[in-house]
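User: two proteins, same treatment. go.

Assistant:
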Amino acid sequence: MAEQARTTTEIKEDILGRLQTVIDPELNIDIVNLGLIYNVDLQTDGNCLIEMTLTTIGCPLTNILADMVEAALKDVPEISTVDVDFIWEPEWTVDRMTRYAKMALGIH
């Protein structure tokens, strides 16, 4: 019996779940809860574009985090390639963080 194709929603949830395993090395919180992921776009050709930001411009972790994102998504069957695009508008603020991330970092 053939496996049923996953819905777009299921695939996006899988992608976001895997991105939650990418931990910011400086803050020890995952990049999803930090609010660093701005957009996930999985195209029909299997290219997955991740638009994300960092807490500060010029962060030395840019390449490391891009590699970590690619590694986290490598086993998603619908993805053939991953492109990580760092964007700076809108600027990241603590308001983008989830309640979990704020509590973990002691921000009220």
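Protein 2:
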Amino acid sequence: MDASGGARAIPSRLEAVDAVLESFFRLAASRAGRIGDAYTGLWSALETSARGGKRLRPRLVLATYSGFGGSELGTAAHVGAAFELLHTALIVHDDVIDRDFTRRGSPNVSGRYRDVATTAGIPIPTAEHRGMSTAVIAGDLALAGAYRLLDRAGMASEQRERMAELLDEAVFASAAGELIDVDFSIAREIPSVEAVVEMERLKTAVYTFEAPLQAGAVLAGADDAYLPVLAEFGRDIGTAYQATDDLLGVFGDERETGKTTVGDLREGKRTVPIAYAATTGAWPGIRDFLGKADLTDGEAAEVRARLIACGAEVYTRNLASRMAGDAVRALDRLPAPVAEELAPLAGQALDRIR
């Protein structure tokens, strides 16, 4: 694989990742068919969850792998696919935790099985329990599959062990972040901005940015001295992305994001703008609406106005911009081919903020 193609070559390299995932699900479906149609159906639902998306994690694996001179596309595609399956596992489980039944505007695994149950005349509470239970099983299968794909990547034993350690750290950190997020949701006090940023880093940035970036470098045989720099870049760009997502969850255009702008407020999610607003005099006028399940569009508009008035929107936007800028500066400490691969990602982060 020629690294000189830079980021322009990534779409064609992602086809190799898709091929690995297709092969994985095809084999799983064949095995499941020997057990029964119901199990085959579950694998089909899981494969649907793994389709689409931006393939961000494989992109990062491939970017650093190529930038550091890696040339075995098949091996890199397996590692990228492993991180994509990990992502699938975590979002399936996260939807269960959040009691969400849709994703990207369509029924997720929970919603798909809930809808089948309700169509059969099963009462809503039982149908929802069936949907979420099935999603837990599906998420477990995807998580196990991520490790299985690493085993199939054709790496030497030492390299495979290091890759498994990176994947394990990603799972370990994400579970910690998810637990903190759950605890935040029931705590009476609003956490600090710093605590929210750290929760979001653990829950999302480690497995989405830091670990995939390092995995590609390790796979290519890069000097270990570059790993902390890649982790720093990943942490900063991850914070920028998540802070922007926090804004889009309240102020975004639903036609562009595919996500409602009242969902986070109704769930009472502890985000950066909410944590900042809690430190201002505007908080009493926001607090009573946060977590209100039947929040109206008019009430949501009032909350948005108060978040803007107290400076929470500007604060969050500035935080995202500052972290994206830090990420750009970190690129100066990486070899030029690697920086060239990663620069578009930093540019996209800045574009999302504007």
